[in-house]
Amino acid sequence: MEHWAIGAANVTRVEEQIGFASFAPEQYFPGFDRELLRRHISWLVPDHYSPAHDRLVTSIHSWLIRTPRHTILLDCCAGNHKERPGFARFHRLDTPYLARMAAAGASPEDIDIVLCTHLHADHVGWNTMLRDGRWVPTFPKAKYLFSRTENEIGNPDRNPAAAADPQRNNAYHDSVLPVIESGQAVLIDGVHAIDDTMLVEPAPGHTPGHVVLKLADRDQRALFCGDAMHHPLQVYAPHWNSRFCELPEEARVTRRRLLEHCAEDNALLFPIHFGAPHVAAIARAGDAFSLRFVAGS
Ligand SMILES: [Zn+2]
Question: Mean pLDDT in each 10-residue stretch from start to end of the chain (297 residues)?
Fold first, then answer.
């Protein structure tokens, strides 16, 4: 199991799945440029692109962050046994995710904070699990942090657009509402300090209430960027939005701002969907950015 140390914090990846994107590159990124793919092909194959399938490779994982004070799970993948018709990668899964978390040294009872960067189905799944036919919170002792904005637009009872979208409707009812009903949800507004090393900050664009986590300890920094970026080629093309980005202009502004933060403040980038080795350092030259992967130890 690979670890990354950020000051006194220890970060481990908990994998749910890694595989081909469900859409061809041009559908995944409407602005996709084959020339950029060709220019970077030497390092994209095989962990980030499969020429045989002409598909980008993407991971779905959580970040387990252990500090002297907290054990945090950032983003909760697609989850097991969820009904997601039309989305094969999320539909009725049965993965050994909790066993992988145990191998990383954490049980569900150890998690004291769950942070969902946004409420899309592949970020909230393990919030809950099926027990005796009911969806119950997987992490019995955790507070679950959700953006208040995100909760309002994700709630099908308040937002007709969410009600009309079966994916969002299902995900909210089986993976968010049970946590609110158990009293474990904490709705956050604006910048929220978890402690003096960790800040949750708004990063709107992919969704209106999307948030990121910044960790800074002993001059070392990390940025957990959720879906502000989906694929490493976006470091070279920060204007590319995924088909799932809900506010395109804000998404571009946010992505560039986060890349600038990583480059200028030397923060390691921890995305949710990048293939191996999953973590990157970002450098800036003029208006452009470049990436260097940083393997764990
Ligand atoms: Zn998303």
Answer: 95 97 95 97 98 97 97 98 94 98 98 97 97 97 97 90 88 97 97 97 97 97 98 98 96 98 98 98 96 96
**Distance from Cα 191 to the centre of ligand 1, integer Å:** 20
- Measure the CA–CA gap between 193 and 214, rounded to whole angstroms: 10
Distance 263 CA to ligand 1 centre (A): 24
Contact between 223 and 129 under an 8 Å Cβ cutoff? The reply is: no
Please, what sign has the CA dihedral across residues 1, 15, 104, 13? Answer: positive
Is the CB of residue 85 less than 8 Å from the CB of residue 167? no
Q: Rounded to whole angstroms, what are the CA distances from 63 to 32, 260, 286?
A: 28, 22, 31
CB-based neighbours (< 5 A) of ligand 1, an ion: 120, 227
- 113 C-alpha to center of ligand 1: Å? 20
227 CA from centroid of ligand 1 (Å): 5
Do residues 141 and 106 touch, judged by C-beta distance below 8 A? Answer: no
